[in-house]
Amino acid sequence: MGLLIIALLAAFCLGLLWLARLRGPVLTLSAAALAFGCAGYALQGSPGLAGSPRASTARQSPMSLATARHTLTGQFDYADIWLNMADALASRGNTADAVNLLSKQVERHPNDYKLWLGLGNALADHARTLSPAARLAFERSAELAPGYPGPLFFLGLAEARSGNPAEAERLWREALAGAPADASWRPLIEDGLLMISGGPAQRPPVSNQAGS
Fold first, then answer.
1. Res 148 pLDDT > 50
2. What angle, 0 to 180 degrees and rounded to 10, lies between the N-to-C axes of helices 78-91 and 65-73?
């Protein structure tokens, strides 16, 4: 359990670095330092010892982009192979290559909403803002998967990163409005709302609908 927690913390730290728009050598060195620390803990730590848990005083920040996508779309399918490759390229600062990779896959599979969603993220990351092309990709993803929260969430994330937190809040509240209370992805969007507005999203009564 201790090793799992360390791995999750490392992933969370890398997610924060990504949200801070760190790329290239800086991100690579940070990842290497985290890997070194995890290896040291694995060799010398005592994960079997009982801990002394304390009550949490603050909610955790939103996940990394890739983790958020997995929460909303699942993983281990055809599209996810290409999306993971694009993530790897972007993490090394090769955002243009990530855009080109997903653009080619969208041409081959024009009805795959996950590829359009990934393309929107890649375009926004490359432009460092919500470009018209990124917006069109998010809108196309929404057309292909009506009612699915992914496009609203990532469009909102791009709006927030572009300096439009009010529009991000509107989109995220729209995504939550028709969602069942036990949807597995609700905490992701609720945490995003806490981050940009400081106020929690209202949670409706638990329904019997499926959460994913």
1. yes
2. 170
